[in-house]
Every structure is written in structure tokens, then in C-alpha cells.
Amino acid sequence: MDDLLTKYMGAIAGAADEAMLEDLRLAALGKKGEISLKMRELGQMDPTQRQVAGAALNALKDEIDAALRAKKAALGDAALDERLRSEWLDVTLPGRPRRQGTIHPVSQVTEEVTAIFADMGFAVAEGPQIESDWYNFDALNIPPEHPARQEHDTFFMARAEGDARPPHVLRTHTSPVQIRAMTEQGAPIRVIAPGRVYRMDMDQTHTPMFHQVEGLAIDKDISMANLKWVLEEFCRAYFEVDQVELRFRASHFPFTEPSAEVDIRCSWEGGQLKIGEGDKWMEILGSGMVHPKVLAATGVDPSIWQGFAFGMGIDRIAMLKYGIPDLRAFFESDLRWLRHYGFSALDMPTVSGGLSR
Length: 357
Description:
By secondary structure, this protein is of the alpha+beta class. The chain has 2 domains: 85 residues; 240 residues, BirA Bifunctional Protein, domain 2, CATH 3.30.930. It is built from 11 helices and 12 strands. The longest helix has 40 residues. It is elongated and about 100 Å long.
């Protein structure tokens, strides 16, 4: 044992780095180390020998372990001293000017949209991003065979084998928030539902995670005329123009009947978008009158109440208003991009004071 102590104490003293020190620890104290193998031989000794040898081996083990710890601490101190010498900094040098952070365009546009609809009497409703199959599809009159319910379009949450509960998904739209709001509050109701949504899509104008805002208004005498007025007022306020012209095209959504895609008149002179003028039309959102089956699913009597709903992409309208060419840049965390397109933290949008800088 004296030989083992001399051998390892010398090796530890000469260890140049922590990797070498770890190799020595394994050679001495690891499961197959020399001292560990000596410990296994105790079972072959008689009780008197075992008591003496066991105490000596334990003392040897403790001494080597203490030496290893001390050497490791010494190596750490030496490394810190070297780092402090190499990273020395003259604190008397003048400091860099503080840089003010900026608000992401998605956050800014969400606040702009919220301010506009709040001015029209819409409250903000929120809900979970992981939704049950019922809230995301069934309550919205989306049939089982609909493409949106397939795995190539929707992110389904993994379930344990044998789990009989309905599947959960990363919500594909914020429409489930409308379902929750109607279920909890009943009618009449007037809300918008901004938030993150998820779909399996990725290119210059699509990302797997993006942002939507949907609106809902339910009352006894609401019509498509009310929907048209609300959307015109929103576009006029959001794009900050005096006049807008919208075109409603018949479409189909499972949760609205009748349904309409909405286009806005615009021009692209010189590659610059101008809203409210020109001879071009650009689709900006989908809308329609809430389907009676959707109302019934939330406990609202469709023979008494009716209303409209609409939805648009926050990222998309941010691109249109602020001239951002690629949707993927929203999520790349490039500080140069954010400094260019970002907004002052104190630039709070209001309808009366102006939405944007």
C-alpha cells in the first residue's frame, strides 16, 4: 500500500491538466482501479486480516481522493489566474453608449390591431396553444375527412399507447378561442383572438409557426353589411389611408355560411404597395357569417343569435404595411434586421394618436 500511495501521490503532483487528473482517478479509484481491486480481495481474508487491511485501504483511498481534489482545485485556480491575466480590462476606459431595444414588428402590429378593434368595442380573448380535437375541429364544423385534420397539415401531440382520450393538437388557428369565449360568455359577444398558430408549411410566405388574429361578433341582428363596415374601417385605420375598397368573393369555410375571401384594391407602382388605389386586387383575409352548427356547439341558439367572423395573418399584414419581403426573417433572431424594422418601446399605438411611427 505504501508503494501505491507513493506512485499515485507522485503522479497527481505531476498532473498538468484536469484530463490527466481524471485518468489517474479512474486508474486508482474507478470500478476497475487498483485500490478497488484490492478492496475485492478483502472477502478472501480471515476476519482479523480483513479488519486491518480494510482500514488501511480506506485510509489510502481517502488520502488519494483528498490529493486529487486538492490538485483539481489548484489547477482551477491556476486557470482562473491565467484567464484574468489574458482578459484584463482597463475599467477607466469610456463606456459604450447604451443601446435602446426595439419592439418586434409582430408585437407592434398585434398592438395596432388590438387598438383598432378596441376602438370598435371588441374585447381581447385568449386561449391555450395546445387544443383538443373538439375545440380545434369538431366544434368548428370541420368534418373528419377534411385535409386540415391530416398529419401532413397539422401537428398532433404524441399519445401514450392505449390512451383512448381524444387527440390534442397545436392549434391550427385561433378559432378555438372563439369557441371558448362563446361557451363561457354566451351571446351577445364581440371579441378578437390574436395569437400563435401552427401548421406544417415552410417557404418564403409560410412558416410552421405564425400569428393570426380572428374576430367574432354575435347579436340578434348582425349581417354581412356589419362585417363589411368593420373590415373597411379596420383597413382604413391600419393602413392609415383615407379610402379603401374591398371586394368580397364567395368562398367556403366549414365554420361560416355564407363565406367570403376579402380582397383590397391596391397598386404596385415602382415595386411599392399602395392601398386604396390602382387596378390590382390582393387577398388579405377570410370571413363569413358564423355557421349555425358552430353556434349550437357552444350552446348559443342559432334561431335567436347570428353573427360574423373573420381571420387574417398578423405576419402577413405586417409585411404589407412595413415592406418586409420574407416571412422567415421574422423568426431568425437577426439583431440587424430587428434594429432596422423594430419599433421604439415607447411607441404605443393608438387610433387617435397614430398607429405607427
